[in-house]
């Protein structure tokens, strides 16, 4: 499993890349849709692996 720090770095990199490309291309372009899906995948991965521990932390 990827460490939380590395996954957060990947998310931040993909977010910046998506924002940069969105300034140059229409939002419905293939590149933007692909980058958006890749970012969604990373965010879901983070949520699946790390948000449960945050919920446990705040519930108790």
Automatic annotation (TrEMBL):
GO terms for biological process: regulation of sporulation. This is Aspartyl-phosphate phosphatase Spo0E family protein. Pfam families: SpoOE-like. InterPro entries: HLH_DNA-bd_sf, Spo0E-like, Spo0E-like_sf. It comes from the Bacteria. GO terms for molecular function: protein dimerization activity. It comes from Salibacterium salarium. SUPFAM superfamilies: BAS1536-like. Coiled coil: none annotated.
């Amino acid at each position: 499993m990827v460490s939380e720090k590395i996954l957060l770095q990947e998310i931040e990199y993909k977010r910046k890349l998506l924002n940069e490309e969105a300034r140059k291309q229409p939002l419905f372009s293939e590149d933007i849709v692909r980058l958006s899906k890749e970012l969604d995948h990373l965010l879901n991965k983070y949520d699946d692996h790390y948000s449960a521990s945050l919920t446990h932390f705040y519930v108790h």
